[in-house]
Amino acid sequence: FQDKVGIGSLPDEKLHVVISSATATAAKFERSHNNNVAVEYRNTTSRMYAGLGGDALGWGIDNDANIGIQPMFFVRRTTGNVGVGTNNPTQLLDVYKTSNDAVIRTRTTTAGAYFEADSAAAAGYYGIRLSSSGTERWFLGSYNSPNFQIKDGSGASGAARFTIVDGTGYVGVGTENPLVQL
Fold first, then answer.
1. What's the pTM?
2. Beta-carbon neighbour count of residue 22 at 10 Å?
């Protein structure tokens, strides 16, 4: 009794598919209507699903076979935006949590854990926006300026509370254009 299945090759695993064409699809999972199609992964204590969300919303990983209803990870088909905890990411990466303390961490076992904001604009448009319920409260970075600033409000229209001038290192408190060292 053979407990392994091989398609295109002798099997090394329970299911082993080998495709000789560079353009062929290895496997196809399809439903005849626009509901979810998912693959279940299970061990003796837990299960997870990966597949296409209903109405072709996108692809996700979920605790439920209804992919995209309460996703852990989701890629929106129409935008390519990635959601963690949401099936409707509005940015390239959108992390959503329905309780306190949503934290994004970068770690390394050696030196060099960073967040990087890199803008090609010569005048400088990069930074961190701190918002509450969609309203920008603080901005840290550079907005249409080579200088580093902390602004009360948005990057575009907030009041500069702290500025370090690029090139001179002059520091200003309450001004965008300090003319002396402090």
1. 0.76
2. 5
